[in-house]
Amino acid sequence: MKPINIIIDTNVLVSGLRSSKGASYKLLTLIDNGNFIVNISVPLLLEYESVVLRECLKLPLTKPDIEYILNYLVKVSSKREIFFLWRPYLKDPKDDLVLEVAVESESKVIVTYNKKDFVGVDEFGIKVLTPKEFLEKRGFLK
């Protein structure tokens, strides 16, 4: 199966770091397997960092662990520069961060638990799937 471009929403990253069970964690363990390409931008990375560090006390990880994971994510992801801002498109400006990277990278999927926050992105040819839905469609869960 040809790798596709995807965007991982912040809530999926936090969920995957919170527990080693479930679809979010499974998705994070597959990031560098060549079946999909995670895309990020500097603003999206800063959003990841802000939320994950804020949630640090609720996570079974130390701050150095989190920094290592974020650095690894940067290393294995496709970095995107956003040269356009057509906000607001979605209700939450932080969701617009995700959408901008998805559009710029020609991503086919935004992986999120908040599907309702991305209503209308199908106009860009982007599907919105939960981690479980994405993994099932890609054949990683049965």
Structure description:
With 142 residues, the protein is of the alpha/beta class. It has one domain: Rossmann fold. It has helices at residues 10-18, 23-29, 42-54, 63-76, 93-104, 131-137, and strands at residues 4-8, 36-40, 78-79, 109-111, 127-129. A five-stranded parallel sheet has the order 3-2-1-4-5, with helices on both faces. Helix 1 (10-18) packs across helix 2 and helix 3 (42-54) runs antiparallel to helix 4 (63-76). The longest helix is centred in the middle third of the chain and has 14 residues, at 63-76. The protein is globular, with a radius of gyration of 14 Å. The model has no long low-confidence stretch (mean pLDDT 91).
Number of strands: 5
The gross shape turns out to be globular
Main sheet attributes: strand count, strand direction, barrel closure: 5 strands, parallel
> How many alpha or pi helices?
6
CATH architecture: 3-Layer(aba) Sandwich
CATH class: Alpha Beta
Instruction: List low-confidence stretches.
Output: none
What percent of residues are in strands? 5-15%
